[in-house]
TrEMBL record:
<keyword id="KW-0411">Iron-sulfur</keyword>
<keyword id="KW-0479">Metal-binding</keyword>
<dbReference type="InterPro" id="IPR013785">
    <property type="entry name" value="Aldolase_TIM"/>
</dbReference>
<dbReference type="Pfam" id="PF13353">
    <property type="entry name" value="Fer4_12"/>
</dbReference>
<keyword id="KW-0408">Iron</keyword>
<keyword id="KW-0949">S-adenosyl-L-methionine</keyword>
<protein>
    <submittedName>
        <fullName>Radical SAM protein</fullName>
    </submittedName>
</protein>
<dbReference type="InterPro" id="IPR058240">
    <property type="entry name" value="rSAM_sf"/>
</dbReference>
<keyword id="KW-0004">4Fe-4S</keyword>
<dbReference type="InterPro" id="IPR034457">
    <property type="entry name" value="Organic_radical-activating"/>
</dbReference>
<dbReference type="InterPro" id="IPR007197">
    <property type="entry name" value="rSAM"/>
</dbReference>
Length: 226
């Protein structure tokens, strides 16, 4: 995808930071728009429609990433939606993000991508493989609501965290089998929405919604129910 000037662009749902529930440290979180996988129980149904969201140039996203690095962010997490549905634009984003971190003297800031694609599907797609060449780690696999897990940063037991670079192995190696009894969920409030960030266990979103309602926050709609 390209913007009106012909520059590489992604269809984006939202960009938020700092994010602390989707990877190690304080991170920039980018959610792409559009997902044909439509996993049952997905908490981000609002990212499914490819006509939703808005086009954002890679150049503009690079500026946001650069500011995040200057503020001490430890990494970039790309989720969705399905990032590999925009493989060419994702390749441009990660290529640029890699260059930005090097120019900023922050080669220690990692790039993490969530995808519902399985590893064999990625390996069979030259475009997907190219898109992920600068990713330090990838979390792969469809979300399966019937297979809950306590593995950190993963929504279901089938999903795999795979380091792909030396930085990825150093940063994510200690977490491959790490489990937690209390997965972290973030709540960020913007002008028109309350954003719940993280990987919840079954029932946690409804419980959180009830708690917020009891505190006087009324939901007109949410993103995890049809």
């Amino acid at each position: 995808m390209r913007d009106a000037t012909g520059a590489p662009a992604l269809r984006v749902s939202q960009v938020l930071g700092p994010v602390t529930a989707l990877g190690p440290g304080r991170r920039l979180g980018l959610w792409v728009q559009g997902c044909p996988l439509a996993c049952a129980g997905c908490m981000s149904r609002h990212t499914w429609d490819p006509a939703g969201g808005h086009d954002v140039s890679v150049e503009r996203l690079a500026r946001v990433w650069r500011r995040g690095l200057a503020d001490g962010y430890d990494g970039l997490t790309v989720s969705g939606g399905e990032p590999l549905e925009q493989a060419q634009a994702l390749a441009a984003l990660l290529d640029t993000a890699d260059q930005v971190r090097r120019d900023a003297g922050r080669a220690d800031a990692d790039l993490l991508v969530y995808t519902g694609w399985e590893e064999p599907e990625i390996a069979a797609s030259p475009a997907a493989s190219l898109a992920l060449r600068h990713a330090d780690a990838v979390i792969t696999g469809r979300y399966r609501a019937g297979e809950p897990t306590r593995l950190v940063w993963r929504g279901s037991a089938n999903q795999r965290l795979t380091p792909r670079t030396g930085l990825g192995r150093r940063r994510y190696g200690p977490h491959l089998d790490r489990r937690t009894d209390h997965p972290e969920l973030q709540v960020q409030v913007t002008q028109d929405a309350v954003h719940i960030i993280g990987v919840p266990r079954p029932g946690e979103l409804s419980s959180l919604a009830r708690d917020l309602t009891a505190r006087g926050l009324t939901f007109q709609e949410n993103t995890w129910r049809p």
